[in-house]
């Protein structure tokens, strides 16, 4: 009996002869197709020794096969067979034992001799060709939702079962995950898969994968795009082939296409053209006929559904990733004395941004806002809520609200959002002042920040507790100020870093504290960031993780100058002299005139709107910009207005806004600060740590 098992797609390219062999290893039975396999009539084979059917070099291997008949073992080998005309052919020979009484003339086993079909006989059986294209292979590559992988699976099926060379071309908009529009004729295409089975490297060299092209007028490729119907060229003669090459301006095309048979199968799904499959049979193989085109179109219609599914998945995934990635910052800013690093690790590889977020925002006056938050939940819904909160908090930071006040506004926002759908989030907000070395921290239901000091000690800072944002009741959000030693490392994080299903949160906090132990000051920030996530990748049930690490240093004293001035008109003249001398010390004489004018306007404005007994403080900071700050005891913030032509005053802030790079004001515990910045020649005023790749992209790998 024949070997058990499902027939494979390879049946379309091979022919099998069955021989019965007795115990003496002579052929006693023969299949009727001996002539097509070995070039001999069945009568010529019966009675011959099986060893006569193979070349001398293969007799030892045949003997091993035949020994298996006596021991009851099935064996297979590749052997070189003799044909009647003296030529040879390669074959896969399988010896299968039979159970019998050993009588003479009774087969002791069967030899299955399988040889490849000659080129002229391939693609002869439409039923085998249809089965090879439509059954298991289509389901196998159709299960992929990756466009490139689906295309490679498609050409691997269609070659060799339908043609000798095939390529898949799709609209460029499919690859770019854009919406597909009605496109014909001059559509921009991309070739995403090419294969051939004739060992000719010219096909892949002339028709390279990844090429973006527009086919010229007058070619069959343009015709299939314009008509959205198959194009059948039973024989491409030399003149036609070289005409295509001339129009395409690609010489090797003429040589490759000469005397081939070609079918171009459009890929159409939901009445929309997606691309086409170019199929060719090189000379020596049976040419395409109308029935082949029918079979090819049936395959192409199913393949188009696979390509369309992959396109839709790619588009939706690209849309989701673009939305998610836009929700996290693409850069982190901080004063020059503060070094910041971040890590973001999504909890799922499918949804690559969740509800965790982080921020590092440089503020005027050599200050920086450091923020980490966590919206309850996972997936896109949590990410969208996170995006709203992050945008709102970024705005509040730029308005220079104190941390506790900013979180209170965020809490009210979460209460409002919760009316539509319940939400809550935790957040820690810290502002570090590089001029005083102090950090003010407020927390809403978040884990405590970690501070690692230069002496090797570390502690979790105790911040007044408050409920999460969006949870009514509980304590009021308050802030606490800490004095930080130069070089200390400040770490804020989300709970996914220290808590999982198999680890108690106290153990996680202890592990994190151990990472920032002795030697933290000397270690590079990038090493600290990597060590923070060490060991979390193996946990497949982890939560999202966001970590922000900042090495805090004060602004050098020589880059900061401050003076207390009396509430006296003469103080303006004195301030101009102080500013001039300080800028000379800093080598910024070219900024002297403008800076003196800005300081004069700010001091005059302060004197006009504060009590006469209140002193005024003037401060200059040389950071990445030159900052002028004027502090007074009035809580009323100035407002820019445009004075009328006959007004005697009201133009001071207008002058400041025109001359300064930017300006603003903020309230303090004692009053307010009005500040302005000027760019320093040769210094970028807005440097930042650019996030070259989207957060989390490279953090799935250990």
TrEMBL record:
The keyword Hydrolase belongs to this UniProt entry's keyword annotation: yes
SMART domains, alphabetized: GAF, PP2C_SIG
UniProt cross-references to PROSITE patterns, sorted A to Z: PAS
Hydrolase in keyword set: yes
Residue span of region Disordered: 681-702
Keywords annotated in UniProt: Hydrolase
Classification via InterPro entries: Bact_Sigma-Reg (IPR052016), GAF (IPR003018), GAF-like_dom_sf (IPR029016), HATPase_C_sf (IPR036890), HATPase_dom (IPR003594), PAS (IPR000014), PAS-like_dom_sf (IPR035965), PAS_fold (IPR013767)
Signal peptide residues on this chain, from the entry's feature table: none
Domain PAS: 18-73
Annotated SUPFAM superfamilies: ATPase domain of HSP90 chaperone/DNA topoisomerase II/histidine kinase, GAF domain-like, PP2C-like, PYP-like sensor domain (PAS domain)
Gene3D superfamilies per the UniProt record, alphabetical: 3.30.450.40, Histidine kinase-like ATPase, C-terminal domain, PAS domain, PPM-type phosphatase domain
Xref: PANTHER family: STAGE II SPORULATION PROTEIN E, STAGE II SPORULATION PROTEIN E-RELATED
Protein's recorded name: PAS domain-containing protein
Organism of this sequence: Actinomadura keratinilytica
């Amino acid at each position: 009996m024949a070997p058990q098992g499902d027939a494979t797609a390879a049946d379309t390219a091979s022919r099998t002869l069955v021989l019965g062999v007795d115990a003496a290893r002579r052929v006693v039975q023969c299949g009727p197709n001996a002539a097509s396999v070995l070039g001999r009539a069945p009568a010529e084979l019966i009675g011959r020794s099986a060893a006569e059917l193979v070349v001398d070099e293969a007799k030892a291997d045949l003997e091993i096969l035949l020994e298996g008949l006596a021991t009851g073992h099935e064996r297979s080998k590749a052997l070189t067979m003799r044909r009647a005309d003296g030529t040879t052919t390669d074959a896969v020979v399988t010896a299968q034992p039979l159970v019998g009484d050993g009588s003479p003339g009774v087969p002791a086993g069967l030899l299955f001799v399988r040889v490849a079909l000659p080129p002229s006989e391939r693609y002869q059986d439409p039923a085998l060709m249809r089965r090879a294209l439509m059954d298991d292979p289509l389901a196998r590559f159709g299960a992929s939702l990756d466009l490139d992988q689906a295309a490679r699976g498609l050409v691997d099926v269609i070659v060799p079962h339908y043609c000798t060379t095939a390529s898949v071309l799709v609209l460029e908009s499919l690859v770019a995950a854009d919406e597909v529009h009605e496109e014909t004729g001059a559509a921009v295409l991309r070739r995403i898969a090419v294969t051939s089975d004739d060992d000719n490297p010219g096909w892949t060299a002339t028709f390279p994968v990844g090429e973006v092209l527009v086919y010229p007028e007058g070619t069959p490729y343009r015709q299939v795009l314009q008509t959205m119907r198959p194009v059948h060229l039973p024989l491409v003669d030399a003149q036609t082939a070289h005409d295509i090459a001339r129009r395409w301006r690609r010489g090797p095309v003429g040589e490759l296409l000469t005397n081939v048979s070609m079918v171009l199968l459009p890929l159409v799904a939901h009445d929309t053209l997606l691309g086409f499959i170019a199929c060719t049979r090189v000379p020596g193989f049976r040419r395409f006929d109308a029935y082949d085109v029918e079979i090819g179109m049936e395959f192409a219609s199913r393949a188009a559904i696979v390509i369309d599914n992959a396109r839709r998945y790619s588009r939706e995934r690209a849309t989701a990733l673009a939305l998610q990635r836009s929700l996290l910052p693409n850069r982190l800013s901080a004063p020059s004395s503060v070094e910041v690093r971040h890590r973001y690790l999504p909890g799922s590889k499918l949804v690559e941004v969740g509800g965790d977020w982080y921020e590092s925002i440089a503020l005027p006056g050599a200050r920086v806002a450091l923020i980490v938050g966590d919206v309850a939940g996972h997936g896109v819904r949590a990410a969208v809520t996170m995006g709203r909160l992050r945008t709102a908090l970024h705005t509040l930071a730029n308005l220079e609200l104190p941390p506790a006040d900013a979180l209170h506004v965020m809490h009210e926002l979460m209460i409002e959002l919760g009316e539509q759908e319940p939400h809550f989030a935790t957040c820690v907000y810290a502002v570090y002042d590089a001029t005083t070395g102090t950090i003010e921290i407020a927390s809403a239901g978040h884990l405590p920040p970690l501070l690692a000091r230069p002496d090797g000690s570390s502690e979790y800072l105790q911040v007044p507790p408050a409920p999460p944002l969006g949870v009514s009741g509980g304590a009021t959000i308050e802030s606490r100020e800490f004095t930080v030693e130069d070089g200390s490392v400040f770490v804020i994080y989300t709970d996914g870093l220290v808590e999982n299903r198999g680890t108690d949160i106290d153990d996680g906090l202890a592990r994190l504290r151990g990472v920032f132990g002795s030697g933290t000051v000397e270690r590079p920030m990038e090493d600290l960031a990597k060590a923070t996530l060490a060991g979390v990748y193996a946990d497949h049930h982890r939560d999202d993780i966001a970590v922000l690490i900042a090495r805090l240093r004060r602004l050098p004293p020589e880059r900061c100058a401050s003076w207390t001035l009396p509430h006296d008109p003469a103080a303006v003249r004195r301030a101009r002299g102080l500013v001039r001398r300080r800028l000379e010390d800093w080598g910024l004489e070219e900024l002297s005139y403008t800076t003196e004018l800005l300081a004069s306007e700010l001091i005059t404005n302060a004197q006009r709107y504060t009590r006469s007994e209140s002193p005024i403080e003037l401060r200059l900071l040389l950071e990445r910009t030159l900052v002028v700050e004027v502090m007074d005891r009035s809580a009323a913030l100035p407002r820019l207005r445009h004075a009328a032509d006959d007004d005697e005053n009201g133009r001071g802030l207008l002058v400041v806004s025109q001359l300064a790079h930017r300006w603003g004001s903020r309230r303090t515990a004692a009053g307010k600060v009005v500040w302005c910045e000027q760019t320093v020649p040769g210094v970028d005023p807005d440097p930042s740590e650019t996030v070259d790749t989207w957060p989390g992209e490279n953090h799935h790998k250990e």
